[in-house]
Amino acid sequence: MSDKPSIAVVILAFNESIHLPRALHHVSSFAREIFVIDSFSTDDTVGIATAGGAQVLQHPFQNYARQFEWALENAPITADWVMRLDADELVEPDLAEEIKLKLPSMPADVTGINLNRKTIFQGKFIRWGGRYPLTLLRIWRRGKAHIEDRWMDEHMYLTDGRTVTFRGGFADHNLYDLTYFTAKHNGYASREALDVLNQRLHLFEPQLALTAESTATQAKIKRFLKESVYNRLPFEVSASLFFLYRYVFQLGFLDGRRGLIYHILQGFWYRYLVGAKLRELQQAVERATSQEELRSEIARLTRQKLS
Q1: Could you give the CA distance from residue 238 to residue 240 in angstroms, rounded to a whole number?
Q2: What residue spans define the domains of the chain?
Q3: pLDDT tens digits, residue range 71-85?
Q4: What is the CATH code of the structural domain delimited by 7-173?
Q5: Which of 190, 148, 186, 145 is CA-nearest to residue 163?
Q6: How far apart are CA 305 and CA 62, in angstroms?
Q7: Which residues contact 87 (CB under 8 A, 6 or more apart)?
Q8: Is 119 in contact with 172 (CB distance < 8 Å)?
Q9: Across 152-235, where does the E strand assignment appear?
Q10: What stretches of 31-186 adopt beta strand conformation (E)?
Q11: The whole model's pTM is what?
């Protein structure tokens, strides 16, 4: 314990028995505390977490952002630093060593650490098409960061201080098949469409904008382009242009056959699906005769629990 930096790893989980042993194994060399926030799994997730040395807290799931913020407010974290990790993400050995070596000597004004995440799809590293590196704020001093209250594409943001970037390996490596991948992205599309609808019509509480100091620069730029340019175009046009830009101009074709599958599904089909779902939601708004009817219809179409 004494040779580990003062860092707690927080993992949200629901039926993650296939991924959780790997995630816990790869953080065990540096994490002083591990918390698994379980949404009442029906598989062996809780037992695996406990056996892997994690403290388990259970809480009903509404969306990722609110579940994670609940974790920050309720998990008995005593470590100086906190790391956000998804169950299907992988901290590679060189990043684990970098955390152990550098974290204890961080200057006081550094309150956040960005990580460069890679995507592994069907066992292949998706290097092109703008998919690497994806720079994300994932480690921060306890009490110095929160998560955006969004339905989708939620980022951590700092309340003060500055960030640095660690270069060690960090991967999104889901082990499930294409059926799972498409089902997951179908749910993501509903949530993203809900966020865009809220941006346009202000149906729910306003969302915090990412600032120049609060999170990774890459995330801020992508958010600005999506909200200021992409979302203003007809989705039939924007989805097609986005795929063309990614696959041709960002060299996605260099990722080979599996890369082609990934870029079509994630860079075209998913973007087109978000646009189609947004149109469906807008039609529901136009038909609704009361706020209660509107919320009920949006909840039905998106399968989300609206607060």
Answers
A1: 5
A2: 7-173, 178-302
A3: 999 999 999 999 999
A4: 3.90.550.10
A5: 145
A6: 6
A7: 11, 12, 13, 16, 19, 20, 23
A8: yes
A9: 156-158, 162-173
A10: 33-38, 55-58, 81-86, 89-91, 110-121, 124-126, 134-141, 145-147, 156-158, 162-173
A11: 0.92
Strands, DSSP E only, in the chain?
7-13, 33-38, 55-58, 81-86, 89-91, 110-121, 124-126, 134-141, 145-147, 156-158, 162-173
Contact 284, 297 (CB under 8 A): yes
Q: Which of 233, 237, 214, 211 is nearest to 224 (CA)?
A: 211
Tokens of 306: 């609206």
Strands of 153-280, DSSP E: 156-158, 162-173
3-state helix, strand, coil in the chain (%, to 5): 45, 20, 30
The two structure tokens encoding residue 237: 């046009």
How does 170-199 read in b/e, with b if 16+ C-beta sit within 10 Å? bbbbbeeeeeebeeebeebbbbbbbbbbbe
Asked if residue 92 lies in contact with residue 110, where contact means CB atoms within 8 angstroms, the answer is no
> Confidence class of residue 218 from pLDDT cuts 50, 70 and 90?
confident
pLDDT, tens digit (0-9, with 9 covering 90-100), for 169-214: 999 999 999 999 999 999 999 999 999 998 888 877 645 444 445 5
Please state, in angstroms and rounded to a whole number, the distance separating the CA atoms of residues 24 and 117.
Answer: 18
For 18-47, the three-class secondary structure string (H helix, E strand, C coil) is CCHHHHHHHHCCCCCEEEEEECCCCCCHHH
